[in-house]
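Shapes recur. One chain:

:::
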Amino acid sequence: AAVAAEARFISSAKGKGLFATKNIRKGEIVFVERPVVSSQFLWNALYNYRACDHCLRALETAEENAQRLLGKSSLVLPHPEQCSIRKDLHQQCPRCQVTYCSAECKQAALEQYHQVLCLGPSRDDPTHPLNKLQEAWRNMHYPPETSSIMLMARMVATVKQAKDKEWWIKAFSQFCNKTANEEEEIVHKLLGDKFKGQLELLRLLFTEALYDEYLSRWFTPEGFRSLFALVGTNGQGIGTSSLSQWVHACDALDLPMLQREELDAFIDQLYKDIEKESGEFLNCEGSGLYVLQSCCNHSCIPNAETSFPENNFLLHLTALEDIEAGEEICISYLDCCQRERSRHSRNKILRENYLFTCSCPKCLAQADDADVTSDEEEEGEGETDDAELEDEMTDV
């Protein structure tokens, strides 16, 4: 699909923004984008959320997915033909056995970064430098996860493997960079109060596992912190689920009214039961770096939203309103509940997680509102304090 938007520099304070290059209708897809690099979260993978090691496509059938989330192996889903998972296409790396959804993904991973990161027979060896790095990360960054050290590892491996190393370094350098003070804040947000010692430990393990002369700057304390902040600032959450794919397919079925009601009731109950068993962790989750999407600025009244309807890392940006040529395209970094809160509360979350104060039309219109959070907001305050450091995990 043709891209109906382009990135433009706005100002040194605001950086880049994304602007419509033609009139876009509400509901239209502005663009579909693949990440320059992506990676599944480490706890997510450890807890058997099985995803393609390259594109994050969910690998379980919808029925297996539901059985695992329910803790009930006897569950049978109706309309199994609506499940899009093709197990006959799945392939493994012959050396380390990580699984891919297709021969294409296996090949793409091998060509971009997997030669460097393949653990071969050391996959379960806790003393292997890459395993030590991943274990250290898991011990610092518990669910709900917002980032992964393996995203940075794949960046290094990509440059290491590349024939044209400068091209990739340039590709990574177009992501938003922060000042040293802002980088400190982002690292602090990702690693918590003990972060100075933790960051140094991660850097040493990262160096042991991946050091490369050509990228020596990335391994210095400053360079590593910048890399860390780049991923923290620009990483976009990715969520995939074969169950939600199946649900969408079932929603589209043309059924007699009684059957439709039965199916809807079954699905509603299924989600209620899963929530009791697995809480909010329904998806295979990871994050990726997207060149165009990362240029989208925030608005509390966004005119576009991101989603992953193809059950893999392909990001769809869809217009929520009619957008005119030349108009800025904005997404919201806050979830629906956070967007409904007072200007003061919204900006508290944005300041803590994204280091800026919002001046969208909604915030400007509410500029004279008192800078206090209302009582009912106070009660909900604790819940959003550690709002995702990444764009809201998009429902798939």
